[in-house]
UniProtKB/TrEMBL annotation:
<dbReference type="InterPro" id="IPR023346">
    <property type="entry name" value="Lysozyme-like_dom_sf"/>
</dbReference>
<keyword id="KW-0472">Membrane</keyword>
<dbReference type="InterPro" id="IPR036950">
    <property type="entry name" value="PBP_transglycosylase"/>
</dbReference>
<dbReference type="GO" id="GO:0008658">
    <property type="term" value="F:penicillin binding"/>
</dbReference>
<feature type="compositionally biased region" description="Polar residues">
    <location>
        <begin position="683"/>
        <end position="693"/>
    </location>
</feature>
<dbReference type="Pfam" id="PF00912">
    <property type="entry name" value="Transgly"/>
</dbReference>
<protein>
    <submittedName>
        <fullName>Penicillin-binding protein</fullName>
    </submittedName>
</protein>
<keyword id="KW-0645">Protease</keyword>
<keyword id="KW-0808">Transferase</keyword>
<feature type="region of interest" description="Disordered">
    <location>
        <begin position="663"/>
        <end position="770"/>
    </location>
</feature>
<dbReference type="GO" id="GO:0071555">
    <property type="term" value="P:cell wall organization"/>
</dbReference>
<keyword id="KW-0121">Carboxypeptidase</keyword>
<dbReference type="GO" id="GO:0008360">
    <property type="term" value="P:regulation of cell shape"/>
</dbReference>
<feature type="compositionally biased region" description="Pro residues">
    <location>
        <begin position="730"/>
        <end position="753"/>
    </location>
</feature>
<feature type="compositionally biased region" description="Polar residues">
    <location>
        <begin position="1"/>
        <end position="10"/>
    </location>
</feature>
<feature type="domain" description="Penicillin-binding protein transpeptidase">
    <location>
        <begin position="371"/>
        <end position="614"/>
    </location>
</feature>
<keyword id="KW-0573">Peptidoglycan synthesis</keyword>
Length: 770
């Protein structure tokens, strides 16, 4: 009965009333099918509560949507009523981007001179404007200033794909670029669309198109169709052919990067597209479209802003900012930015003066590249890229390559120190020595000029650039490990991993790349990405800030040991006299390319690094021998060191004299397994413990066994031949002349050769390129 009561009460109230006063049979069937039927036949005026709530939600949703629409219409009406169209003469013209030295006030130059000439569009053939319509806005003649479908499609792609599409009509582009400035925010796009609609309702389509053609940027520093016609074809806009008009119109979205001189394939692809649309839309007949051929453009001659060395700086700045995706080329040329570089004006003026000097007898073909770097931050303080950008646009600091030779040996020292090898370990420094240079291939490897150095340690081998010692080092490291160390230091160029010769610098690099790698050692193991741009601002707002991405890649003491070994180069080694000339400690390393086609020098104090290289390309790009000139030795290996001294003597003149970090040589004689060099058994017991090495010490260790160098030594002479007398330090070489007293007279040969860097002649010649 209780169950029957819950069921009755769950029915409609009218049914319950009738059941309570009806027969017993009615009550008995209240839970059966009849009861269900009674519920089904409930009075129609009684509504289901669930349906009532569902209808309420629809009303609320429709009300919200309606309210949004009303507010949107009201806002649109307000913005439309309050938006004024600037007069044509008030158009915000594109601004030049100016590049400054690191003081932020001294200008270096600008990316482009604004070149604009307003023309009467009535003088232009119809196909000139219609080519632009075909390229940028096919519905231009019929739309109301905006393209709702295009904007919706662009919004969807931006939200789903992270792109930056604008979906803009010609009228919107005109409003964006010349009334509002570049707009990328959604609020800016709304203002742009409203202004475009107002322009479309108040200006004739022909007037809008004419204003657009007279102001849009079309590359090569040209603003407007008249300037572009002159820049690309050397003629007035009224004389453009349909093909020429189509080419210019096709590259509008990215005129600098789609310039036929830069990207001919893309330019032709865009040209074909425009011609096809012009035919389809009736602007060209089928015959005219068939006759249209991609036009030949004139050679681009940069503005005078790029004359002299300035062009190298501007182009390097532009490349740096575009390669890291901070800006596009077109944005830099038209954005009105302030680019503040890391360059020090005094240093830049000096490095240019030093590099431009052409001593008597120097071949006109000889190329020079140089760079000065603050290794603590990766900031480039000065760069020698060439004499005149307009005459040679290949940058000798960042683009031209050469064989660095023995300047690559210090990366082998890093590996030796990492493997716990004491730098007092003795090696066989005789010449030649036989090595398995590649798997299964053996070769006799000589030292420079065939000098046999006898038994020497790593510090002496570094100072005197002894090839046979470093080939032995690379046998233990392996070429692959050596290449990885160089890449860890920051070198990005290719380094062969299948030959012992890679430690002798047989692979071509740029001056910039070589400086990048050595700056990590000079900065005590922390790698900073070299950069020329410090920051970019606009209207006092920071738009970009350099991030050198400092990364610790080597142990500080490993680098200190390498720096100490390199100190010997500038005191008694291949660049003897450089340290005394500067009056401070200088870590350095000289290098000569295979077959004497290039020479280089890397040097640094604790505050500043400077790298120089010279090479001699032939007319067809082949590598020619660098001859002697102005008293500078065989292959002029002393000239890069001379350039270093000339620049650094003024660059560090006002800097305090600083010492390099103290190096603690706690490695093992002969390495952990005693198989490096002559092995652990050949070393005096006094060297088995920790050895603290300070930069002020003499480059020779008292425990080292050093034989006087001999030229043309017999190949059979090995380190097993002990000297009969007390070991002597190799004879001190005469420093390379910095200012030869009589340039036309060959100087007296030094007591010790000044070129122990030449690579083995058995190695195939590597193309360094120009």
């Amino acid at each position: 009965m209780a169950s029957q009561t819950r069921t009755v009460r769950s029915g409609a109230s009218g049914d319950a009333h009738r059941t309570s006063h009806g027969s017993a049979n009615a009550r008995k069937t209240s839970t059966g099918p009849a009861g269900a039927r009674r519920n089904h036949r409930a009075p129609k005026n009684k509504k289901d509560p669930k349906r009532k709530h569902k209808g309420l939600w629809w009303k609320i949703l429709l009300g919200v949507i309606g309210g949004i629409i009303v507010l949107g219409i009201a806002l649109f009406a307000y913005l439309y009523a309050t938006t004024d169209i600037p007069q044509p003469e008030k158009i915000a013209l594109a601004e030049k981007t100016t590049v400054y030295y690191n003081d932020g006030t001294t200008p270096i130059g600008s990316f482009s001179e604004q070149n604009r000439e307003i023309v009467n569009c009535a003088t232009l053939p119809d196909y000139v404007g219609n080519a632009i319509v075909a390229s940028e806005d096919r519905s231009f003649w019929t739309n109301k200033g905006i393209d709702i479908t295009g904007m919706a499609r662009a919004l969807y792609n931006n939200l789903t794909k992270g792109t930056r599409q604008g979906g803009s009509t010609i009228t919107q582009q005109y409003a964006e670029r010349y009334y509002l400035g570049e707009t990328t925010s959604y609020s800016g796009k709304i203002r742009e669309a409203i202004l475009a609609m107002k322009i479309a309702n108040s200006q004739d389509k022909s007037e809008v198109l004419c204003n657009y053609m007279n102001t849009i940027y079309l590359g090569r520093g040209a603003y407007g169709i008249q300037a572009a016609a002159q820049a690309y074809f050397g003629k007035d806009a009224k004389d453009l052919t349909p093909s020429e008009a189509a080419m210019i119109a096709g590259i509008i979205p990215a005129p600098s990067t789609w310039d036929p001189a830069v990207n001919p394939k893309q330019a032709e692809k865009r040209f074909d597209r425009v011609v096809g649309i012009m035919k389809d839309d009736g602007y060209l007949t089928a015959q005219q479209a068939a006759d249209a051929k991609f036009p030949e453009v004139k050679e681009y001659v940069p503005s005078n802003d790029y004359a002299g060395p300035t062009g190298y700086i501007l182009s390097t700045v532009e490349t740096e900012l575009t390669n890291n995706k901070a800006f596009t080329k077109d944005e830099l040329e038209t954005g009105g930015y302030k680019v503040i570089t890391t360059l020090d004006k005094t240093m830049q003026d000096r490095i240019q003066q030093v590099g431009d000097e052409r001593p008597e007898g120097m071949p006109e073909t000889l190329q020079i590249g140089g760079i000065a770097v603050d290794q603590s931050s990766g900031s480039v303080r000065a760069m020698y890229a060439g004499q005149d950008y307009l005459k040679q646009q290949l940058n000798n600091a960042t683009q031209s390559t050469f064989q660095p030779g023995s300047t690559m040996k210090p990366f082998g020292l890093i590996g030796a120190a990492q493997d716990d090898v004491s730098f007092s370990t003795l090696f066989n420094g005789n010449s030649p020595e036989r090595f398995e240079t590649t798997p299964g291939t053996f070769a006799e490897v000589p030292n420079a000029l065939g000098i046999s150095w006898g038994t020497i340690n790593l510090n002496q081998a570094t100072a005197n650039s002894v090839n046979t010692v470093f080939m032995n080092v690379n046998e233990h490291l392996t070429p692959k490990r050596y290449a990885q160390i160089a890449h860890d230091a920051g070198i990005t160029g290719d380094i062969q991993e299948d030959t012992l010769y890679n430690i002798l610098g047989i692979n071509s690099l740029t001056v910039w790349d070589l400086a990048q790698g050595h700056s990590t050692i000079a900065n005590n193991g922390t790698k900073n990405t070299l950069h020329l741009v410090d920051r970019v601002t606009k209207a006092d707002k920071d738009m970009y800030k350099a991030n050198p991405e400092p990364k610790k890649v080597f142990d500080e003491n490993v680098c200190a040991l390498t720096q100490h070994a390199m100190l010997g180069t500038t005191t008694y080694g291949t660049a003897a006299g450089v340290s005394s000339q500067l009056g401070r400690p200088v870590a350095g390393k000289s290098g000569t390319a295979n077959d004497e086609t290039a020479a280089s020098f890397v040097g640094y104090t604790p505050q500043l690094m400077n790298v120089w290289a010279i090479w001699n390309p032939g007319e067809n790009g082949e590598n020619l021998v660098v001859p002697s000139f102005a008293g500078y030795g065989v292959s002029s290996t002393g000239y890069p060191a001379h350039l270093f001294s000339e620049f650094m003597s003024t660059a560090v003149a006002d800097m305090p004299v600083e010492q390099f970090p103290t190096a603690v040589d706690n490695g093992k004689i002969g390495g952990p397994d005693g198989d490096w060099g002559l092995g652990g058994s050949r070393a005096p017991s006094t060297n088995q413990g920790q050895n603290t090495v300070t930069p002020s010490e003499s480059p020779s260790e008292s425990a080292s066994q050093s034989a006087s160098p001999t030229q043309n030594a017999s190949p059979s002479q090995t380190a097993n031949d002990k000297p009969t007398s007390e070991p002597q330090q190799p004879a001190q070489p005469t420093p390379e002349p910095t200012q030869p007293a009589q340039p036309t007279t060959e100087p007296t040969p030094p007591a010790q050769p000044t070129q122990p860097d030449t690579q083995p002649t058995t190695e195939p010649q590597q193309q360094s390129g120009q």
